[in-house]
Structures are given as structure tokens and as C-alpha cells.
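Please, structure for the following, as C-alpha cells.
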Amino acid sequence: MSGDAAGLLFVFGFAVLRPSRFWPPKWMLRWIAASAEVRAERKAAEEKLLTRVREIEAGVPWLRALDVVIRDECVDVRGHHIRLFEANPSTRESMRCRMSAFIVFSPDRDPEDAVAEIRRSFPPPDGLSADGISESLHWDTDERKVAPNASSKAVRTRVTRRHGEKSLGQLRGEHGVLCMWALYGQTYPTVV
């Protein structure tokens, strides 16, 4: 028996013997997150977000992005809604993947006034856009500084940045108060 066949038998046996509420294991979630099918969905999700980023940059002429951060995460969601006596345990989700974009900029005026102007002249959609993107605007306050969201349960994370590797702290030091236009895409392939 070849090594590949033995490996497949081991995986199949592991899948059959392992209780369904623990299936699939993390290594399999990582493997699925890197699969061709998920890569195709990831590429489509990224293109939708980048199209919207370009629309925002063209629609708000004074907005000069200091950075555009694209965060792609596949998150292990097992244990979020575990019910011991669930009628159909096979429909529980194991992993959700989501692509998000964060446009970081610094207005040349009070951030509340800048955000109010954006909302009047180029408002983010109320709820989800036609492409399934939800948007929100945030700015630095004394209580909270803007930062792209990240999950501590990520199975896979990829972060790309348009304008280099300056941290948000460095950008704050150079430009003052930061604003962030957050775009959250719909989840793509979910594993059950």
C-alpha cells in the first residue's frame, strides 16, 4: 500500500471514528481555507471590496488614504453555538471566511465634521450594499483609537497593505487624528 493511500485511509478512519461535534480538525480547516475553491471565492470577495474602495476614493476627492488594509480571515467558529441535543448537528458551522478592507485617512479638519460631510455627499449604504458589503466610519477619540478588527480564533489570516508598513501609531504621530472607513464583505465558503 502506498503512503498516499495509507494516509487517505487514516484520514477517512479518523473522520468516521471522531465525534461529529469535533469534526473537522483545525488542520483540515486550514487545508480547506487554502483550497482552490476557497481561493476562487476569496479572489471574488477581494475584487468586490477593491472596487468599492476605488469608488470611495473617487467619490470623496479630499480623502487621501494613508493606508488601505485588506484583512482576509478564516475563523474557527466551533463552540459558538454548541447545543447538546441539537436536532440536526450536521448543519453546525465549523469555519467562516471573511474579507474586510479598512481605508485609513486623516482629515484636514475636525473628524466629526469630515465624517458628517462624507455622510451627506457620499453616504455609505444603510445596511448591506448590493455586493453584500457593510460599511461604517470611525475616528480616533480619547477613549478609543481606530484599528482594523482581528479575530483571536483565526485559522488563516492574510493582511495586505497598500502604503507600506507604517503602524497606525506612526501614522497618528505624523498626521494626527485618524479616521477609518471599514468595509466588511459577506462571508464566503462556510464549512459544516
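The chain has five helices and five strands. Confidence is low (pLDDT under 50) at residues 3-20.
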